[in-house]
Specification:
seven-stranded antiparallel β-sheet, disordered N terminus
Length: 134
């Protein structure tokens, strides 16, 4: 139980370097969400863009800790459509904190979900980190 509590108290950097970032990348994690279900961070030092099916997306590197019964740490490359104010996951890796191991999560087809930037502070932080303020 104590180990689980320590994991909940950990910050993003306590889980090591993201396996989705380039070797030697210096992360700058900023908390985007922290509630009873999830803590999430944005790496403000990692930015990129990609084109998927002819659509250009901004990319963000995210780290999340799902606080459910089976504590789950994941690094995610999120893609943001700045014009349509939508976000999806492009890649994700599960981190096993005790082992320092990470395995790729299959994502499949890109599923874009609307971001609620007017009432959800976490969604607003994600959007602004990728697209700037409007």
């Amino acid at each position: 139980m104590m180990g689980w509590l320590l994991l909940l108290a950990a910050g993003a950097a306590d889980y090591g370097a993201s396996p989705l970032a380039e070797p030697g990348h210096a992360h700058r994690w900023v908390e985007a969400q922290n509630d009873e279900e999830l803590t999430g961070w944005i790496d403000m030092a990692w930015r990129s863009e990609t084109v998927i099916d002819g659509v250009r997306y901004k990319q963000l590197l995210l780290r999340t800790v799902d606080k459910g019964e089976d504590l789950l740490v994941a690094d995610i490359i999120g893609v943001v459509d700045c014009d349509k104010v939508k976000m999806g996951m492009q890649r994700a890796r599960i981190i096993i904190p005790d082992l320092g191991d990470a395995s790729e999560m299959p994502i499949g087809e890109l599923q874009m979900e609307p971001l609620n930037v007017t009432t959800d502070a976490g969604d607003r932080k994600l959007f602004e980190a990728a697209c700037g303020t409007r």
